[in-house]
Amino acid sequence: MTDTAEMDAYLSEPRDLYRGRAQCVVKPRDAGEVANVLALCDAHGVSVVPQGGNTGLVGGQTPDATGRQILLSLQKLDRIREVDPASDAMTLEAGVTLARAQEIAQSVDRYFPLSLASEGSCTIGGNLATNAGGVHVLAYGAARDLALGLEVALADGRLLSTLGKLRKDNTGYNLTQLFIGSEGTLGVITAATLKLFPRPRSRAVAFLGLDDPARALALLNFVKEHAGPGLQAFELAPRIGLELVLRHIAGARDPFGAVHPWYALVEIAGFAEGEAERVAGATFSQALDSGLVRDATLAHSLEQAENLWRLRESLSEAQKREGGSIKHDISVPIERIPDFIAEAGARVAAHFPSARPVPFGHMGDGNLHYNVSQPVGADKAEFLARWGEMNEIVHGLVHEYGGSISAEHGVGRLKRDLLAQVKDPVALDVMRALKKTLDPKGVLNPGKLL
Question: Hey, what CATH class is 202-316 in?
Answer without folding.
Answer: alpha beta
